[in-house]
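Researcher: For the annotation table, I need structure tokens for Nidogen 1. Please keep the output clean. Sequence:
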Amino acid sequence: CFSHQTWAQRKNFPLIIRGFYRLLWSVIHIPPSSAFQFQINTNGFVATTEPTSESTYLGKMPPKFGMIAALQGDLDTSDGVGRVFFRQDSSPEVLRRAAEHINRAFPEDDEVDPTHAVVITWVDVATKESQSRGDGVNKKRNTFQLVIASLETASYAILLYARGGIQFTSTPAGDSNVVIHAGFSKGYVQGFLFSSQGPYYPSFSTGTQFFNQSAPMFPVFSYNLGTCANNRNKCSQFADCKDYSSGYCCHCRPGFYGNGIQCVAEGKPQRMNGKVHGKVHVGNSPSPVEFSSNDLHSYVVVNDGRSYVAISDIPYTIGPSLQPLSALGGVIGWAFALEQPGFKNGFSIIGGEFTRQAEVTFMPGNEKLTIRQEFKGIDEHDHLVVSTTLEGRVPEVPRGATVQIDPYSEIYQYSNNLITSSSTRDYVVSLPDGSTETRTYQWRQTITFQSCQHDLSSRDMKPTQMLSVDQVFVMYDVMEIILVFLFWSGLTSFLEWGQPEENPCFTGRHGCDTNAVCRPGQGNQFTCQCAAGFNGDGRTCYDIDECREDPQICGFHAICNNQPGTFRCECEDGYHFDSDGQTCIAVDRPVDACEEGTHTCDIPERAQCSYTGGSSYICSCLPGFIGDGRICQDIDECQPGRCHQDAVCYNTQGSFTCQCRSGYYGDGFYCSPGKTQCEIHRDSLLAATEFGPRGPRPPVGQYIPTCDENGAYEPMQCHGSTGHCWCVDRNGQEIPGTRSGPGSRPMCFDHGGVQPPVGPTPRPDVHPLPPGTHLLFAQSGRIEHVPLEGYDMKKDDAKPVLHLPEKVIIGVAYDCVEKMVYWTEITSPSISKASIQGGEPVAVIRSDLDSPEGIAIDHLGRTMFWTDSVKDRIEVASLDGSQRRVIIDSDLVNPRAIITDPPNGNLYWSDWNRDAPKIETSYMDGSNRRVLVNDDLGLPNGLAYDSQSSLLCWADAGTHKMECMHPARGDRRKVMEGIQYPFGITSFGKNIYYTDWRRDAVVAVDRHAGRESDEFQPQKRTKLYGITTAYSQCPSGQNYCAVNNGGCTHLCLATPTGRSCKCPDNAVGVGCVERDSGY
């Protein structure tokens, strides 16, 4: 969220913005000027003209005036709580963040750098309601933001919704409630026949559908003025660009047809590919038939109007009942129908990018089916791409029955960016017993598209056309489980229908090659002409191999690929297309100045360099220092009151220390006269001992603490009789997991070394962790922590460690060596890290990820492992994200949780495949893979491994059980039953902690007692995801990769008997040497 300032309570207040006329110019076509005025409205929108009364637009979208709706409804700011903030801002930070949103939303376009921004924030606005008792504090409230960012030739609007900031999705309007809206409306415009409603682009209009999403949404809309000089590559390669007074338009060249953005050769057959999704009920069945990426293919012989449509993998339970739905493929017939003189088919008018929604109502049962199709344009193979969704119910057609659909005509009405049609159709069902039934359905469809408004001549399009379908054939093949439609379609005038042209070119009875154009002559005369990219006499046409005829047709550093009727140019490896889309230039490979040490940040002891992608980086001062990151100066934290009154403050680089004065004891923040806690502890034990000739002797078996020169507990304490040693905190309490046996010593850190710096953190949403052991857990766009006192959660001290409102964080892991938290997130799939002692988040991996979920750290080998539930694989990489290698990529369906056992070189993961859930293990190099558990599992979401007890534990959201086992022995045992919906799980000592989706809580379970011992519910009640333990000291143990990378050149992956040296998957020419397991 962008910060805000300036507020107002009036319904409308004007804001004059200089340099922003291009936004309104492209929206409402006002004359350019150096400044203009628009209205910011407390009802959640910006108006480009004076808004009409509320009764004309509340619940009646789109409005008659120009509107940018961030979250429009009947909102209230008069209660003293709701506010509206706005400002103009050209600060580098705001412009950088706006650019990040824009470039993420338009990845195919050139990156932009806005020069100005307007930030408008609606904070805690409630619905406008009649007067009632109470002060309104408990009302539901919404918080959202609109940012308008501009550069010289384009303006962008960014809509931002805070996680948890949207609490209601409708507002009162009269005697009913209406849903809130977001989007763009141009208002009323002068059309080519009459004034009509201009384009309306809703971002969403049904609150429930949007706000139940698991991730915050960032709609970004672009309005480009521009000219052909800097937008020519937006046109098809078979189109010319033409400038107009208000912008530019693309026009297909002779021999091609389309809208200029999409152009195809006249006469050339057209293919279409896509997928079908959705759920459809048949008859009275309560259970729907689901479509999941069923293939849809179509082939159109353009010069005679024939179109074939086939949908595969249609089960027999629904296949016969879909036969009446010629509407599924009818839009293809309209898009490429034969054209009578003066009329155009759909593709000639709107190209291949449009949305079509059809509603079918079957009579007399009133079953309803909605068909939604997103046409996404022509791909690199010259195929039209479509995505189809079916939702609703159809009447049953018995198995073995056939369907006959008679020829029909359908009227299409054309207006500004909108095409509609409706009709009533009959079809005949021939039943297996020989009888027939005539049935009827009503049909309505809407086609929305984006046309070029700058070319006024395009408005000469006929407002009404009739599609004539002369023949329809439909068949369901039960053996091949495929549904097939065949159409013969042509376009003619509604007013002149009944007297169609009889020229063979208009009827399709001409005999030209399928790759030829039929050219009408006088009367019944015609000629056949091969389509562009083909040679021949028109009756027979042959493809031209442009790549062979002109080897240099694509230019230098390019590869030519011949295709039917055309060719494609691709740049060689190491090159990419320049902005003209034609010239191949060398790739300007990004340089990570932070890694190479070529940055201009201050020294690492004072500043941090954060790589931000490309060749960019950010310098920031470390906690305890101040400056711009390039020059950082120490902050003198020794201000009055920092330390106890009986202590001396010593300023250090980046921090400070407090030390009690002579004769006083304590940690410097509290000092008291007399002995320290350690000395009192030690002397109380020694006082009970006997004195011999060599001084006091404690009884055999008695532990005596050791104190340092300042009277504090030594970080490592040892038992003089047994030889065991362990680490203690500053209060002398043993740190769990640090005890070692005789002859070995744990690595214990000095208590002074774990003090967090006192002073400002580098950003307000990152809070350094205090000393001790903590639980870290993910909650949507944040990572929070709960300190542990022994095994108890200190719930009052819980707070966020990191706040990333635009992300959905799934897995978390902790590196105890560098004090780093790592996490996976799925909104823009990536793996990132941040220091828990304060610092900017750093993206570690951002490419070749689809849905990274579980993540685990090998703190000894300095590697990380993660699962990807879409790519169905497990990968490993070094902690900086380099040296990636896939170690498991077979027999995985939904891998989620993953954990490491670094001292023993083992890896464990769960797969919640609903058909065959399992828990597996392997060595860290992926070898010796085997299944540990595959029976009595449902949804094993979380895994935890306790190194002290060697127990592998899991929580199952399907069986609602928590269980543990020794992986080597297989002695599985139940810990607890009746848990609700666990997601993540971690262990610490005798306790297991898990996150629960139903309870929105972190739950503690005593593993020995088999019962819950505590629960923590964050203040923000949303789903909790991954959880991990952030140890105050690294667990004891070593593996072969802990020293000198195990002697490996690249990846060192531990195994129980040694290690394997492995090369990353992209290790080409880097001198990598692989060695099998062993040492």
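Researcher: And a one-line annotation?
Model: The first strand starts at residue 7 and ends at 8.
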